[in-house]
Write a structure and sequence with these properties.
The complex is a heterodimer of chains A (128) and B (591). Chain A is mostly helical and 128 residues long. Chain A has helices spanning 11-14, 30-84, 86-95, 122-127. Chain A has 4 helices and no strands. Chain B is α+β, with helices and mostly antiparallel strands. Chain B has 2 domains: 76-156, Alpha-Beta Complex (Penicillin-binding protein 2a (Domain 2)); 229-581, Beta-lactamase, CATH 3.40.710.10. In chain B, the strands form 9 sheets. In chain B, strands 2, 3, 4, 5, 10, 22 and 23 form a 7-stranded mixed beta sheet that branches. Chain B has a 5-stranded antiparallel beta sheet with strand order 12-11-27-26-25, sandwiched between helices. In chain B, helix 4 (94-105) crosses helix 5 and helix 13 runs parallel beside helix 15 (375-385). Chain B is elongated. The termini of chain B are far apart. In chain B, 45% of the residues are buried. Classes of the chains: A mainly alpha (128), B alpha+beta (591). The A-B interface holds A 49, 52-53, 56-57, 60, 71, 74-75, 77-78, 80-82, 84-87, 90, 100, 103-106, 108 and B 73-74, 77, 79-80, 154, 156-160, 205-206, 226-227, 230-231, 234, 508-509, 577, 580, 585-586, 590.
């Protein structure tokens, strides 16, 4: 048996065309990233702006409501003060026959010597 | 090859496209240039111009402070009203509009018509009307009639507190009373708002906004008790009717605090219409005569008459010249300090002093002289004291100088001790040649009630601002007589009410002390007339005085010309209400 060195491969054998597509890692172009960032930023800015506007509107509404309630409160206080005016009440009281009591008796109690007074409510005794 | 060797042929379409392309490029270049010019080179100037058009600046009016009584009830506050105005050149039928609006506004239609027919751009129809009324008028849909909000001052207690609170003018500036005294503090500090506005004038929410908020005015908490003020006013009005007097004034003072609990009189005025509320005013042709706003209690001066004797006797006791039981010998009913001064009962000259009632000449104790209000006896006591010391004590008790009360244009009073006046000391001893305000007299009596300690009377107890409450400063106290002298004087005052000239001042259940005063008024010729100012100043309860009440009734009918007849019943009425309002423990007997 004789040994022969292996022959050089033919030109056509070295360059072979493989069938099918070569698998590559997917890549995203930088401009696309920038575009996406720009779109997201734009949307985010719009959202933030809308939120702020919405809050500002709410704030404006609340301020308006506070002003209205304050004004109403003032009007009610004024109404109370007018109703409490003795110059208004006194003639009405007189019409109803009310007068300032002629004899006012004041009972003076010496708290140091007077015996303690126990006041019982009607319901308390029944429960015990 | 055909491409390299081909002859260039003229192609019109390509030329046109090239020209158009060139023009488009030029247009873009021009626009770009303009854009750069606007956005870069001119940007700061244009931005500033635009901002100046959008940016508006407004003053923010501060809310005027409120005024409260001692119970927290409102005396004055500011609310929003509507001011109605018109643009005359927009009014199509001025006469019809004047008739329509005049009725609703209760205004003179002819004057309204004149305004609506004028050539002015803007006329007020009525300022500060109620919001409901403004809505009714705007509801008529008249072109050229509009309203804008404007603050207006309201006084819920009306005339009851008018002599305390005072009033403001239509522009909200204090004109009288506490409104004037504390005008600056009540007004507050205006703010300022800068903001961007849209085309319709509304603020741009996210635009530039720089707001310096207005600082509201301070609220005043007064010492006035409105129910008591009303009672005092009613008592005065009844006194004016009963005695047919010109007017009546009453002040209620806290003895231990110097707080003015009530300060009023009759007639009073309406703080809104600024008209005196007096039936006499309805009969006057000239309404300007009914513009009496002046508070006599603080600004008035009157010769206090016998109420002054408290100071004379207190000074003599303090200086140990007399004691209560000291007998003054030979007290007559007429004293002549100048020759022939008492030439006739109808025509006394200066230097003639008479007791109110004739009596025999006899020895009288100091207590009796005081209780019976003997002019001659008091002058004899003052003679022991001497003019120098008498004047010293009159000044110590606060007469002849302002009390320092927080109210406008206070009267200092007059002490007439001109050089060469030989009888002025005697006149001063019995309340002539001296002019004081009712408040000065009340403060002097309060010093006796407060164991000899004089306290500055005051109306405002504290102020409330954004930082909370602040107590008022400047309350002065000074010892004018010893507590022992004050105690003796209180007993003398009580004896006046129990068995002297002031029996009408008694209050059921309490020991009351006080002194009547009847001072003849000076006529236009400089001589005293029969017309009087009747007064009563007193305190209760005598065992531990809490309240001083001073009453002055001006020109009562002759039948009521004395302090005991005209003023003492008012005192009793007001004092009783005050004691009950403050819940003061009785120290006397029920009648």
């Amino acid at each position: 048996m004789t040994v022969r060195p292996a022959g050089q491969p033919a030109e056509g054998d070295r360059l072979r065309v493989l069938s099918g597509r070569r698998l590559r890692r997917p890549t995203v172009a930088p401009w696309m990233i920038m575009a996406i960032i720009a779109v997201v930023a734009f949307l985010g800015l719009g959202f933030a702006r809308t939120s702020l506007d919405s809050s500002a509107f709410e704030l404006a509404e609340l301020n308006k409501s506070i002003a209205e309630q304050t004004a109403l409160n003032r009007q009610l206080n004024l109404e109370i003060a007018r109703l409490e005016n003795p110059a208004r009440i006194s003639p009405l009281a007189e019409e109803l026959g009310l007068v300032i009591p002629a004899n006012i008796h004041q009972i003076l109690v010496d708290l140091e010597t007077a015996p303690p007074v126990v006041v019982e409510r009607a319901g308390d005794g029944a429960n015990q | 090859m055909t491409t390299t060797n081909a002859r260039i042929r003229f192609q019109p379409a390509k030329v046109r496209i090239a020209i158009i392309g060139l023009l488009v490029v030029l247009a873009w270049v021009a626009m770009g240039y303009r854009l750069v010019q606007i956005q870069v080179f001119d940007a700061p100037v244009l931005a500033e111009e635009g901002l100046s058009q959008r940016l508006v600046s407004r003053d923010l009016a501060p809310q005027r402070g409120k005024i409260f009584d001692r119970n927290g009830d409102l005396l004055a506050m500011t609310v929003e009203a509507q001011s109605l105005f018109a643009v005359p050149n927009q009014i199509e039928e001025p006469l019809w509009v004047a008739q329509q609006i005049g009725g609703l506004l209760e205004a003179d239609s002819e004057r309204l018509f004149e305004r609506l027919s004028s050539t002015r751009d803007f006329v007020y129809l009525k300022r500060q009307v109620d919001g409901v009324l403004a809505e009714d008028i705007l509801g008529l849909g008249i072109r050229g009639v509009y309203a804008h909000p404007e603050p207006t001052r309201i006084y819920p207690a009306g005339e009851v507190a008018s002599h305390v609170a005072g009033f403001v003018n239509i522009d909200g500036v204090g004109q009288e009373g506490l409104e004037l005294v504390y005008d600056e503090e009540l007004t507050g500090v205006p703010g300022r708002a800068e903001f961007e506005r849209g085309l319709d004038g509304t603020p741009i929410l996210q635009g530039i906004s720089d707001i310096v908020p207005a600082v509201p005015g301070v609220d005043l908490n007064t010492t006035i008790d409105i129910p008591l003020q009303y009672q005092a006013q009613q008592a005065c009005m009844e006194a004016v009717q009963r005695t047919r007097a010109d007017n009546c004034w009453v002040v209620v003072l806290g003895v231990e605090t110097g707080e003015i609990l009530a300060m009023t009189g009759a007639p009073v005025f309406d703080p809104v219409s600024r008209q005196t509320l007096d039936p006499k005013c309805d009969r006057l042709e000239d309404p300007t005569e009914c513009k009496m706003f002046s508070n006599f209690i603080v600004r008035g001066m009157y010769e206090p008459g016998s109420t002054q004797k408290l100071i004379t006797v207190a000074a003599a006791i303090e200086e140990a010249e007399v004691a209560i039981g000291t007998t003054i010998a030979q007290v007559g009913d007429v004293l002549e300090l100048r020759d022939d001064a008492c030439r006739s009962a109808e025509d006394d000259l200066y230097g003639c002093y008479r007791d109110f009632k004739e009596h025999e000449t006899r020895d009288m104790t100091v207590a009796e002289i005081f209780t019976r209000s003997s002019n001659v006896g008091t002058i004899m006591i003052a003679d022991r004291l001497g003019q120098k010391r008498l004047v010293e004590y009159i000044e110590k008790f606060g007469l002849g100088r302002k009390t320092g009360v927080d109210y406008t244009v206070e009267s200092p009073g007059v002490l007439n001790f001109a050089a060469g006046c030989e009888t002025c000391w005697a006149s001063a001893a019995i309340g002539y040649s001296v002019a004081a305000s009712p408040l000065q007299m009340a403060a002097a009596y309060a010093a006796i009630g407060n164991d000899g300690n004089w306290i500055t009377p005051h109306i405002v107890s504290s102020k409330t601002d954004v930082d909370g409450d602040t107590e008022v400063a400047g309350i002065e106290t000074r010892q004018v007589v010893s507590s022992g002298t004050a105690l003796l004087m209180r007993e003398l005052l009580a004896s006046v009410v129990e068995r002297g000239t002031g029996v009408n001042a008694a209050v059921d259940g309490y020991r009351v002390g006080g002194k009547t005063g009847t001072a003849n008024k000076l006529g236009s010729d400089g001589r005293y007339t029969d017309d009087t100012r009747a007064s009563f100043v007193g305190m209760a309860p005598i065992s531990d005085p809490k309240i001083v009440v001073a009453v002055v009734v001006d020109s009562p009918h002759f039948d009521y010309r004395t302090g005991g007849a005209a003023a003492a019943p008012v005192f009793a009425d007001v004092m009783e209400q005050a004691l009950h309002r403050l819940g003061v423990t009785p120290d006397g007997e029920e009648r």
